[in-house]
Specification:
Layout (H helix, E strand, L loop, with lengths): L1 E12 L2 E12 L2 E5 L6 H8 L7 E6 L2 E2 L4 H7 E4 L11 H11 L4 H14 L15 H13 L5 E4 L8 H16 L4 E6 L2 H4 L5 E6 L2 E7 H8 L1 E6 L3 H10 L4 E4 L2 E5 L4 H12 L4 E6 L4 H6 L1
Parallel strand pairs: 3-8, 3-9, 6-7, 7-8
Antiparallel strand pairs: 1-2, 1-4, 4-5, 9-10, 11-13, 11-14, 12-13
The chain binds adenosine-5'-triphosphate (ATP).
C-alpha cells in the first residue's frame, strides 16, 4: 500500500522544466529522493504539500489530491524546508510551541509536545536561547523539530544535512533513521549524495532533470552499483584483460581498475586473477557510491 503516488507529473517554469512526466510511488518507511542540484527535488516536495499546482499530471498523498486537498495533506505531513527560514530573535521553544498551536494543538499540549520533540532532536538548555545565535546544526534541528511537532504520519526533509560538518551529518542521519524506526513516521528525505542516504533509507528514488531515473530498494541499489577499486604494483593492463576474459566488467581508473561487483564471487575472481598473473596487489577497496555512478548505470 503506497503512501504517495505521482502520475505524469510535470512542472514547467518559464525557462525550465523542473519535473517532466514523473510517475513514481512511495511506500511507508524511509525513502531517499536523490538528484543533483536543480534535479527537481524541492519542486516535487512543494507539489506534494499542495503548495504549488503542477502544470500537468496528478499526485496524491495518503489518497488525497494535492491540488484540491492541500490543507488535509499538510495536517498529516511535516515539512523541513531546505533553506534557512528561522526568525533569529525568538527561541526554539517559542517558535516550535507557536507552530504547534498553528497546527491546532491547545497551548498546554503544544508546550509539552514542543519540549518532547526538542529533546528528541537533541536540543536541551539551548532551546531557551534566541535562534539567531545557533550553529547550523542547531538550526537544522529546530527545523526538524517543527516538522515533527504536530505528530505527522509522514515528513518531507529537504536536504537536512546541508551545511553540516561530518559529525553533525552523522548525528542528523541517525536521527532520521530513528524517526522512521522508533517513532514509526514515514520519511521522504532529499540529498544530492546517494552515499549518505544509503545508511538510513529502505528505498531510493533517483531523479535527473525532472525525470525518474530509478526507483529501487536500497539493497538492489547497492548491489548493482557497487564497484571495487583494484590496484596492483605493476600489470594493471594484463589484469584488466584477464578479468574481462573471466566475464567481469572492468574499466581503467587512474592507476587502478574499477570492477563491477556481481556478487561475492567477484572478490574470488580478482584474487585468483592476481595470483595467476603473479602480481602484487596493493589495494582492493569498495568504491564509494556517488550520484554520478548511478547516472552511468
Ligand atoms: N519558482 C521557480 N521559478 C522558476 N524556476 C524555478 C522555480 N523553482 C525552481 N525552479 C527551477 O526548477 C529546477 C528544479 O529546481 P528544484 O529546486 O526543484 O531542484 P532541487 O533538485 O531541489 O535542487 P536544489 O537541491 O539545488 O534545491 C531548477 O532549474 C530551478 O532553477
Amino acid at each position: 500500500m503506497h503512501i504517495l503516488a505521482t502520475e505524469g507529473l510535470t512542472q514547467r517554469f518559464p525557462t525550465v522544466t523542473a519535473l517532466d512526466q514523473l510517475s513514481v510511488t512511495v511506500e511507508a518507511g524511509v525513502t531517499g529522493l536523490v538528484g543533483a542540484n536543480g534535479a527537481g527535488k524541492s519542486t516535487l516536495i512543494k507539489i506534494l504539500l499542495g503548495l504549488l499546482p503542477p502544470t500537468a499530471g496528478r499526485a496524491e498523498v495518503f489518497g488525497l489530491d494535492v491540488v484540491t486537498q492541500g490543507p488535509q495533506i499538510r495536517g498529516l505531513v511535516g515539512y523541513m524546508p531546505e533553506h534557512d527560514c528561522l526568525p533569529p530573535d525568538v527561541s526554539a521553544t517559542e517558535l516550535v510551541v507557536h507552530l504547534a498551536q498553528i497546527s491546532g494543538l491547545p497551548r498546554t499540549a503544544a508546550r509539552e509536545r514542543a519540549a518532547d520533540v526538542l529533546r528528541h532532536v537533541g536540543l536541551y538548555e539551548e532551546r531557551y536561547r534566541a535562534i539567531g545565535g545557533y550553529s547550523t546544526g542547531m538550526k537544522q534541528r529546530v527545523k526538524l523539530a517543527q516538522a515533527l511537532v504536530h505528530d505527522p504520519q509522514l515528513v518531507f526533509l529537504d536536504e537536512p544535512t546541508n551545511g553540516l560538518d561530518p559529525q553533525g551529518r552523522d548525528e542528523m542521519l541517525t536521527l532520521i533513521r530513528r524517526i522512521g524506526t522508533e517513532f514509526g513516521i514515514s520519511v521522504l528525505v532529499t540529498s544530492h549524495l546517494l552515499g549518505e542516504l544509503e545508511r538510513v533509507c529502505d528505498h531510493v528514488i533517483v531523479i535527473d532533470g525532472g525525470r525518474l531515473l530509478r526507483s529501487s530498494a536500497i539493497t538492489e541499489f547497492t548491489q548493482s552499483t557497487q564497484v571495487l577499486t583494484v590496484e596492483v604494483e605493476e600489470g594493471a593492463e594484463p589484469l584488466a584483460a584477464r578479468l574481462s576474459e573471466l566475464g567481469q566488467s572492468v574499466t581503467a581508473h587512474g592507476r587502478g581498475l574499477l570492477v563491477q561487483v556481481r556478487g561475492p564471487e567477484t572478490y574470488d575472481t580478482i584474487r585468483d586473477a592476481v595470483c595467476d598473473l603473479d602480481l602484487c596487489l596493493i589495494r582492493l577497496e569498495q568504491g564509494r557510491q556517488r550520484i554520478e555512478d548511478v547516472f552511468r548505470v
